[in-house]
Amino acid sequence: MQQIRYFLAVCDKGSFTRAAQATYVAQPSLTQAIKKLEEELGGELFSRDRSGCRLTALGRLVEPSIREIVRKTQALKAEAVRFSRLNTVPLRIGVMTTIAAHHLSPFFTNFQQERPHVELELIVDSECNLLNQLDEDGLDLVISAPTSLLAEHYQSLKLYEERYVVVFNDKHRFNQMQQIDLATIQAEPYLDRLNCELRETLRSVCQGRQVNLYAAYRSNSEEWILSMVRAGIGVALMPEFTITKNADQIRVRYLSDPEIRRTICAIFPPTSAAKPEVAEVLKSLRMSF
Asked: SS3 for 254?
């Protein structure tokens, strides 16, 4: 690992001198470590010139794998430290920002009551950021609403579907209507959810139907959108489970035309599914939804 650390320092700094300074080691010691690594790998890793040094063909070949070794080693150390400190099995789950906490909270409550040895850590973020963390072993699984085909190295478990609803306050004229479509909404100030995973899909549907939703306000916060609905500033389109039952001053109707749905899935790489604690949560998810 010391040789690997010095190798990457030279890659990043472009010279043995700067790499030695960055790793706080004498340059002869760093040079000797690189030579030992070259002997083990069977060839030179760097070629030197006046400007510093460059990777050889062999160096370019092994660099990605060496960086992957460092990344996995760091992840392993972090998990070992967490386990030692907490004496529990850490399970890191990412949840997409727009998924309603109150809809998933009962599941997590029951799961932890039945399996107190499993520590749960919930990370709430955008789908893009969560999948990046999943790739980097920062998460064990992600609960999200994918809008496109997942990469081949992911597996998924369908949890539930939810329809989109029109959200308005209890004094709005929509209270008198049983069905509301896009054409009806365009006559109202529209509250645009910036984190909506179907935002581009909705925009495309509106263009196809020649519907113009005037965005009176925009926000990346579901709570702010609901607060503005309560204040009578406008109406919004939201996933149905985002709204709690008997929400104060809030009324909803299913969007009738077109009917829009999203599918909530648990997303995970096969390596995560092999972990006993992840297998347990996936089994519980299958039974709960």
From this structure: strand
